[in-house]
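Q: What would this complex look like in 3D?
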Amino acid sequence: GESVGLHLPTLSVQEGDNSIINCAYSNSASDYFIWYKQESGKGPQFIIDIRSNMDKRQGQRVTVLLNKTVKHLSLQIAATQPGDSAVYFCADYIAQGAQKLVFGQGTRLTINP
Amino acid sequence: NAGVTQTPKFQVLKTGQSMTLQCAQDMNHEYMSWYRQDPGMGLRLIHYSVGAGITDQGEVPNGYNVSRSTTEDFPLRLLSAAPSQTSVYFCASSYQRGQPQHFGDGTRLSIL
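A: Here is my prediction, written as structure tokens for the whole assembly.
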């Protein structure tokens, strides 16, 4: 069935270090993937997306990698800052059939000073 | 632009009461959706709309109704509140289905 999950529920990194948040999906028909950031008391905020015809996409301090062979994607955040502390969600979208966005449970990233 | 605006931000209800959660967007987005967020379960789709006058059920629609009379507004109605509906509710919108959605800041609902 369709599911999107994250390998770790929590992740702590030192300020200035790079962080990697992982996500696994199960449906090989998924063709679009999104990373969201959710700060406490706020709604999810779009960070970056990637389509299934790409392996990598870069934004400002963030990079998403997609490995379709093992159905895995990751979010890399460079030089983490205190403002990066949040819960990060991956979501996948299947353009055919139900056409729904499926969210993972989230990883809480904590930046230590 | 205000983006996606949800009201109220907090609400406490008694079992059996009904209420409407309001959602409005000013981005002229066609696609709007409602999610609930529960601990350990991520975001689950309740109902969605691909345009004014068109709505459909999501993953967990039971106990909720929606309507879409205008592009801007997409209210969510709880017909008879139950403790299992205690959750944080998010409204989201995008130009089309399958595009990154803009989320509101949520309504935190407690059913006693």
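A: To summarize the key features: Chain B has a mean pLDDT of 94. Chain B touches chain A at residues 4, 35, 40-45, 58-59, 90, 92, 97-98, 100-106 (CB under 8 Å).
Q: Very helpful, thank you.
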